[in-house]
Amino acid sequence: MSTKVLRIKEIEKTFITERGAQVNALKDINLSVDKNEFICLLGPSGCGKSTLLRLIAGLEVETKGEIFYQGESLTKGHKDIGMVFQQYSLLPWRTVINNVTLGLEFAGIKKKRRKEIAEQYLTLVGLQNYSNSYPYELSGGMQQRVAIARALASDPQLLLMDEPFGALDAHTRILLQQELLNIWRQNKKTIIFVTHSVDEAVYLADRIVVMTSGPGRIKDIINVSMPRPRERSNPQFGKLTSMLLNMLTEESSNNNDNVINL
Fold it and tell me: How far is it, in rounded angstroms, from Cα 70 to Cα 5?
């Protein structure tokens, strides 16, 4: 029987601009996420995908509704919830291994144990030979691997990923998608992954949550039944991709050019 890790109930989020105008980012969001499930949030720019992730992470406060983690109401950040941003957010003055140990330092883990944990996750992402390098010495893809290792080092049960591969070239993006799935299988995490890429969502997700143009609502939830590893040449892959593209095209046509990206 599935175990509900996260329940999002009737969430709404409204922002107030500097001029005092109200911007409705999210409206009537209801979603449950199972343990070890891989969820992708997909939708047009400005539909509130990143805002929803920030609400779950405790970086924003909802205007209405409630979010429950493991049955308990989330009112702030939780130690079991980690986040990987699109921008790598690495500290340039710290080596790779010292970037990975950052959260462990805040948690009061002793130095020897911090090093052991960091080395374990650097090996997992294939960067064990770069532990003493600095971020500027690494490619964009390698820097994102460090950011993923840092998030995993704190052993979150729920990992939130906000377009982590969006700035990478196509080949590196595909390689990191494959690597992320390997990490997910080995570590048995629950992942909620924001993306603009239909191809990426079909390749990664157990379920794809398709959102409307702003204010963001859930338009549909698509179960992806294809076994892994998924082949992009599979006709079923192409059929699902085409269907999702049509859904996004419909939403984009409803979207105002002046929508504020949130």
Answer: 5
Nearest to 144 by CA among 158, 123, 165: 165
pLDDT digits (tens, 9 = 90+) for 232-248: 999 999 999 999 999 99
Residue type present at position 110:
K
C-alpha 67/C-alpha 170 separation (Å) is: 35
Contacts of 43 (CB under 8 A, 6+ apart): 49, 210, 211, 212, 213, 216, 219, 248, 251
In whole angstroms, what is the distance from residue 33 CA to residue 75 CA? 18
Q: Can you list the domains of the chain with their CATH numbers?
A: 4-80+157-254 (3.40.50.300), 91-155 (no CATH)
Q: Cα separation of 1 and 247, whole Å?
A: 32
| E strand or H helix that includes residue 75 | none
Model-wide pTM > 0.85? yes
Task: Give pLDDT tens digits for 106-126.
Answer: 888 999 999 999 999 999 888
Q: Dig out the tokens for 27 from the structure.
A: 């409206």
Query: Taking CA 257 as the corner, what is the angle to CA 167 and CA 215, rounded to the nearest 5 degrees?
Result: 85
